[in-house]
Design a protein that fits this description.
By secondary structure, the protein is an all-alpha fold. The protein contains 5 helices and no strands. α1 runs antiparallel to α2.
Length: 124
């Protein structure tokens, strides 16, 4: 289920990137921003999601802490910019969805680690 959510998000971000590059007059482009900063942010988030897809749990504690910080910053920034009318709705929904994915990955449970048969890395 986790991989399906990540792959679906990567697909949607790829469609947003391609849609913005190919046609900027489509009806859906009203709901996302065409600024270059958002395009760069989308590409960076796709690369981070691909990194999550190809790394297997258990991840190191530092990586999980960094992922949690990125999730919190992405969620707070997206919510603040959406409420301040500085970000369009589809961008905000995608960024909040990615923040939730990052938070879930950062909070991987010890039960999941026990079921996978790998030892938990507790050392920083």
């Amino acid at each position: 289920m986790r991989h399906l959510l990540v792959i679906g998000t990567i697909t949607l971000l790829g469609c947003m990137i391609a849609g913005q590059q190919l046609t900027s007059d489509s009806l859906l482009s009203v709901f996302w921003s065409s600024a270059i900063e958002y395009q760069v942010t989308r590409v960076v988030l796709v690369s981070l999601l691909l990194g999550l897809l190809f790394t297997t749990p258990p991840r190191s504690m530092r990586f999980r802490m960094a992922l949690g910080l990125v999730a919190g910053a992405l969620f707070c920034g997206s919510a603040a910019m959406l409420l301040g009318y500085q970000m369009r709705i589809l961008d905000a929904v995608m960024f909040i969805q990615i923040a939730i994915i990052f938070a879930i990955e950062a909070l991987e449970s010890p039960a999941h680690l026990r079921l996978s048969g790998k030892k938990e890395q507790v050392a920083l």
